[in-house]
Design goal:
Blueprint: E1 3-4, H1 7-11, E2 18-22, E3 36-37, E4 39-44, H2 65-68, E5 72-75, H3 81-93, E6 103-106, H4 110-118, E7 124-128, H5 129-138, E8 145-150, E9 154-155, E10 159-162, H6 169-177
Parallel strand pairs: 5-6, 5-7
Antiparallel strand pairs: 1-10, 2-10, 3-9, 4-7, 4-8
Amino acid sequence: LFGQTCWGPMELGLADHVAVIGQPDYSAFEGGNGIHYASAVVMRRKDWPEKAIAPSTDGSAVLPLDRLRGLRLAFNGEDSMSGVIGLKRDLVQLGEGLRIFSGMVETGAHRASVRAVAEGRADVAAIDCRTWDTSRRFDSAARELVVAGWTARRKGLPYITALPLRALLPAVTRALTG
């Protein structure tokens, strides 16, 4: 009846076929605020010996451009808002772009990007705050990393349903909350 997607695929045409029916709350995660999230920009601890960077209080990007220049970016997929599209947009707003990186490694998943950075196959990755929280709790590779910046906050991953099914939403809502 419903699923969840990223805004990247929504912008690339999925929105023509589905209806957004809700959004999760990211407030429980560092970098989250209501329906908005930020991605943690992570690097190996040995390459970022300073203290972890906190997200901005106003939701703007906190990106150490001089430290990112020339690094290899791991990202989950070209259609990922949290892994590459949002980072690219933030860099453009700062007068840069993905060209700041010396190379890019597509990994297929945020957790695979965490491992790619930890293992030295890449130097930096943008990981949405919910996945970063999960990785820190359950993936030993995340212990090798530190947050060196944050993307700007954006709307989180929407819950969606196929357009023909949206007529069922009131009944589904009553069943789930009743």
